[in-house]
Amino acid sequence: MNYQLFPVSPELRPWIRYFWSYDGFGDGRLHIRSFADPYPRLIFQDTREYAPVVDQARGVMPVAYLSGMDTRPTSAYWNRQFSHFGVSFYPHALPVFFGISATELVNEMPALSDVDRRGMTSRLADARNHRERVTLLSRYFLERIQTPDAVIQEVFDRNTLVLEGLKGIAASHRLSLRQVQRRFKDQVGVSVRTYLKLQRFEQVLQQLSGARFGDLTRIAFEAGYADQPHFNREFAAFSGLTPYQFLREQTMGSESASFIYAGDDVVSIQV
Fold first, then answer.
1. Under-50 pLDDT residues of the chain
2. What integer pLDDT is reported at residue 241 of this predicted model?
3. How far apart are CA 209 and CA 113, in angstroms?
């Protein structure tokens, strides 16, 4: 499999983390486990040449779709021959580009054509390669930028979600802490408390890369969990696995909080 990252133009960097592509070759099937993830995504799949993604309910996913912030794990399946392209957004990006409350997209994956009817799905399909898709979407997003919420933009620019930092931002904008928290949920999709849990889970996933079973107690302590059972419960709620199970499973690749596994026991996928 070939995974690539593409840089983002300076004008879009406040809201887009990176563009990515994933291309697979070979026979057989794959099982993708997507864990809770604080970063929304846009995903395009080439269904003209390859079989489409099938979700856990055996429904075929749209050619291009948005995935809002995820607070629970899901599964999907596809063949080992595939070509996918995507965008990883910062948590507060969806209202800026699509003019909708982020709460509407939490744990949802609507077709891009349901959110915007400018024909971008067919243009992505007609593109000759992934770099052309980067150019298409960069222009598309630059044309769609709406005035961001200045308060929430400052929260992410300053990377301050601790209580004292939020109080300082609230005071500078003559708002109450409660008003800032409400605006955060509208722009991001979840409460500050839930977002901090997702952020901690993301950091734990990074530490588990290359970790051994004997490292779990240390990782739980450094992440601020009260004890090992607390760590196990929260990890399972966000991933569907215990930390031990996650370390034991053999992954074939990953993108953000989505992990690819061999899928010999999964559903059959047909074009």
1. 265-271
2. 93
3. 36
Whether 165 and 151 have beta carbons less than 8 Å apart is answered as: no
Domain map (residue ranges) of the chain = 2-147+252-262
**pLDDT tens for residues 113-157?**
999 888 999 999 999 999 999 999 999 999 999 999 999 999 998
Contact yes or no for 16/89 (Cβ under 8 A): yes
CA dihedral 26, 136, 32, 215 (to 10 degrees): 110
CA 111 – CA 24 distance, rounded (Å) = 23
What pLDDT score does 262 carry?
Answer: 83
Contact 68, 189 (CB under 8 A): yes
Closest CA to 102 of 165, 195, 21, 12: 195
What is the model's pLDDT at position 117? 83
For residue 196, which of 166, 221, 169, 154 has the smallest C-alpha distance? Answer: 166
Residue 103, judged by CB atoms within 10 A of its CB (0-12, 13-18, 19+), counts as: middle
In terms of phi and psi (left: phi > 0; alpha: psi -120 to 50; beta: otherwise), the region of 154 is: alpha
Q: Look up the pTM and report it.
A: 0.91
**257 three-state secondary structure:** coil
Q: Which of 45, 53, 24, 81 is nearest to 269 (CA)?
A: 53
Q: H helices within 209-265, ranges in order?
A: 216-222, 228-239, 243-248
Which DSSP state fits 242?
Answer: -
d(CA 76, CA 62): 13
pLDDT at position 27, please? 85
- Report the alpha-carbon distance of residue 49 to residue 83 in Å, rounded: 8
Tokens 């995820």 — which residue?
70
